[in-house]
Amino acid sequence: MSERPPLPDGFVAVVKRDCPTCTLIEPVLVQLADAAALAAVVTQDDPGFPDLSASGSAPDCTFDQDLTVSYLWDIETVPTLLRIEDGAEVERIVGWDRAQWEDLTGTPGLGPELPEWRPGCGSLSVDPMRADELAGRFSATGLRSRRVEFAELEDEFEAMWDRGWSDGLPLVPPTEARVARMLTGTTRAPDELVAVVPPDLVECTVEKVAVNAVMAGCLPEHLPVVLAAVEAACTREFNMHGLLATTFFSGPILIVNGPIRQRIGMNAGVNALGQGNRANSTIGRALQLVVRNVGGGLPGGVDRATLGSPGKVGFCFAEDEEGSPFTPLSVDRGLEPGVDAVTLFAGHGPSAIIDQKSREPESLVRSFASVLRGNAHPKLPLKIDAVLVVSPEHGRIFREAGWGREQLMARLGELLLLDTDELVQGAGGMAEGIPEAFGGMQLPKFREGGLLVCHAGGGAGLFSAMLGGWVNGEEGSDPVTVPIGT
Amino acid sequence: MTTVLDPTGERSVAERARLERPSSLEGKVVGLLDITKPRGDVFLAHLEQGLRRRGAADVVRFAKPTYTKPAPVDLRHEISTKCDLVIEALAD
Hints:
The complex is a heterodimer of chains A (about 475) and B (about 90).
Chain A: E1 10-15, H1 20-24, H2 26-34, E2 40-43, E3 60-63, H3 68-72, E4 77-78, E5 80-85, E6 88-94, E7 96-97, H4 98-105, E8 117-118, E9 121-122, H5 128-138, E10 147-149, H6 156-162, H7 176-183, E11 193-197, E12 202-205, H8 206-216, H9 223-233, H10 240-245, E13 251-257, H11 260-263, H12 278-294, E14 315-318, H13 329-332, E15 341-347, E16 351-354, H14 361-373, E17 384-390, H15 392-400, H16 405-415, E18 417-419, E19 442-444, E20 451-455, E21 463-471, E22 480-483
Helix pairs in contact in A: 5-7, 7-8, 8-9, 8-12, 9-12, 14-16
Chain B: E1 3-5, E2 29-34, H1 40-53, E3 58-63, H2 73-82, E4 85-89
C-alpha cells in the first residue's frame, strides 16, 4: 500500500460540492475555521468549495482531483471529519450529526439553522466509475506488468493487433482499471506464480493471466476457471507444448463441472459447444491467449497445425450434471461431487453422432460405438482418446432403461474390442493401420480411461457428439482434471 | 492516450518491430509520397533523380489528397502493393 499523503494535525474535513450534506454544512466549516478549529479541508470535485473567504482563518485547502488523499485515507463518505494527531488519525465522524461534530471539535453551537442530522454521500474515491482505477493505482503489491502506451493517433484496437497480441479477433484493452477489476475475481495475489507456460517456458503470474483474461473478454468471476485451466494446461501430463506444436488439429478443450457453472452463467444447454455464451466463449479463449502471449506460442511459429480447428480460438463448455443419467465427469475422474472442477482434454471437433431411431440403450450404444470406432481412423486403436458428449434426448434413453455410467462404459468397451486382423496395415485395402505382427488378436479402441463421457446440449435433437483427441500418453497428452480455486 | 498492461512474457521490446532496412536500392521499387505542400514536388523530383542514380529499379510518385489528413487507406494499400520502399516527404 502506498504511503498516505500527510495531513496537518487538528481537524480535517473531506467534502465534495456534489454532496447536498456537504453544501449544507458549508456554514459549519466557516464557523470552525473562524474558531481556528479547522486545520485543513480536502475537496474532491471543486477547488472553489467550500467558500471559506468569510472566515477569519485560512485552513489548508487541498483539491484532491486525482483522489489520492481520499483513497489512501480510506474516505468512504463525505463529509468526513478526521482528527489528526502527530500525522495519524485518532478519530473520525461521517455525515452531519450536530452532537457528534460539537463533541468531536469541542465547539458548541455549530450550524444552528441546520437540521440535527443528515447522512453523507459516497466519497468519489469509492465511486464505481473511479474505484477500479484507484485500486489498480494503489493495489497492495502493485501491478507489475510493463506499461505499454499507445500513441495519440493509434487506434487502441489496431494497436493491440499490430503488437501481435490477438488471435485474430478484437481484444478488450487491458487497462490498469480493467485488470484491477479482473483481479477482484480471485483471492490470489497478483504476483503469485500460476504456471510456467510453454513453449517459451515463461513464469506466469495471476496478474498476467488476468491481463489476458481481460483481453479475451472475461468477467472477474470467470478468472478462477481460467487460472485453474492455465495450471492444468501447463502440467507435464497435459503437455501443452506438444499440443501446441503438433501438426494435428487439436487444442485444449475445457469441460467445467460443479456449482460454479451456474454461478458464472455457463452454458451446458442449447448450443453448448457453440457460440453465444460469454463464459464459454471467453474462458477457453483466455487460456489460448495466455499460451499465445505469455508462452509465445504462435501459429506458424511453434504451432505447426496442418489444418487446425476453429475450437483453437477457445473451446470451453459446462456439463449438464442436473439432467444427466451419469455421474459427473469430474467425479468419474476422481473429485468429490459438488467440487468445482475443470477437465482439460486435448481435442477438436465435434463430430456428429446421429441416431434418431434407437429407443433402447443397446441399439443406441451400438451407434455410439460405430462412430467412436472411427475416431481419427477406424483402423487405429488405443493411441487416441475421445470425449463422448451425450445429449439430453439420447441421455433419456439410458436413464429410462436404468443405465448409468458404468453400464454404458462396460458395453462400449465390449463393442469397441476390435479384431486386429481388420486393423493391420493393408487390411481393407488401406495402407494405414497397425503392424502386421499384431494380427490375430483383439485390441480395445480406447485405452483404460481414454474415453471420457459427459452430458450436455439442448433438449431437442437425437444427436450426440464425439470430440476426437490427440495422441495420448507419454508421447502426447493425458486429460487433466483440477479443482477450481477461488 | 491509452495505457495498457503488457500481456506478454515481456521477453522482447513492447514497440512494434520495424522492418529491416534494405542494404541497397538495387532492383527496388521506391514510392515517393508527396503530402501536397507547396514545392514538395520540386524536392521530390530531385530525390527521384538521386534514387534512380543509386540503382532503384523504379520510382513511383504518389500524392495525398491533402496534407491535413492521414493518407487514405486505399492510397496506403496501393503504395504497399506497388513498392518495396516508401519515402514520405515533408516539405515546408
